[in-house]
Design a protein that fits this description.
Length: about 280
């Protein structure tokens, strides 16, 4: 699976490079732009705002620090873009609303949550990137990685993982299948500490003083399978890998994508869901 991820990453890089090459030329001045591509002035004063991936060079782009949106957007710095990094996706969205950014690149599900709460924002139809999310674990703990992979395989086969995801995503299924731990679970193996960044709805976020979401429920289901108590530690996204490396946390679960850079520091389980990066802009 990791080799497949590397191939996918390489294909993505080639596609992005081709996209950047294609957007180097402009249409003749007397060519009318399609109505759907017309937009307000860009933050930097250029004639057109972001209407698609080809418009990203030269723009001011907001991302959450350390995320794959940050990693992918960084490639555009060589094309004249300014990347503004925020500890929370919500802070980037607020900066977009204030006109400080031309767009925000972020995961699709949190993007939908932000747009639902802000009717002056929209998600562009064109996807920015497609990615798989996995759990990161210390390279010194191969046994745990194998155990979690086994638990994930069981949860997928039993339909439990799909049920957890459906409970947070989908107009017809949202809220219909909350995960409940089975009765009489043996938790004699101790505690697994999950490092996360609880500002990434619907994967991890606060409901009162409790961290909930797809990742929280999935981690609980894994612990139920393996006989552990689950402890969740909320921290900045950029600190998660360090927490796993240092032993402060046993696993990092935070909508995290496998990348070549991260693989030098930690191992990853098999993916547990597929997501996509999208672009949020002002209407």
């Amino acid at each position: 699976m990791k080799n497949m991820k590397k191939v996918a990453a390489a294909v993505l890089a080639v596609c992005m490079a081709a996209s950047l090459t294609a957007c180097g030329s402009k249409a003749p001045a007397d060519t009318a732009a399609p109505a759907e591509t017309e937009a307000a002035e860009s933050t930097d004063g250029s004639a057109a705002a972001v209407a698609g991936v080809d418009d990203l060079p030269g723009k001011t782009i907001g991302v959450q620090l350390g995320t794959t949106g940050d990693i992918y957007a960084s490639d555009y710095e060589a094309e004249g873009s300014t990347i503004e990094r925020y500890n929370k996706g919500a802070d980037a969205v607020q900066a977009l609303k204030q006109g400080k950014l031309d767009c925000v690149i972020i995961d699709n599900q949190p993007a939908q949550a932000f747009v639902e709460k802000n009717d002056d924002l929209k998600i562009l139809d064109e996807e920015f990137a497609v990615e798989d999310y996995a759990i990161c674990i210390s390279k010194d703990n191969k046994e745990l990685t194998e155990a979690i992979n086994g638990a994930l395989a069981e949860l997928k086969a039993e339909g439990i993982l799909d049920s957890i995801i459906a409970n947070y995503i989908g107009d017809d299924t949202k809220g219909q299948s909350p995960y409940v731990s089975p009765e009489g679970v043996d938790r004699s193996n101790g505690t697994l500490t999950m490092a996360t960044n609880a500002a990434f709805e619907p994967y991890e976020y606060y409901d009162g003083d409790k961290v909930v979401g797809i990742d929280a429920d999935m981690a609980q289901a894994v612990c139920d399978k393996l006989g552990y108590e689950l402890k969740i530690e909320d921290m900045e996204f950029d600190s998660i890998i360090n927490a796993v490396q240092s032993g402060k946390a046993d696993m990092g679960v935070a909508g995290m994508t496998v990348t070549e850079d991260r693989l030098t520091s930690v191992d990853f389980t098999e993916p547990y869901t597929t997501a996509k990066q999208v672009i949020i802009v002002r209407k």
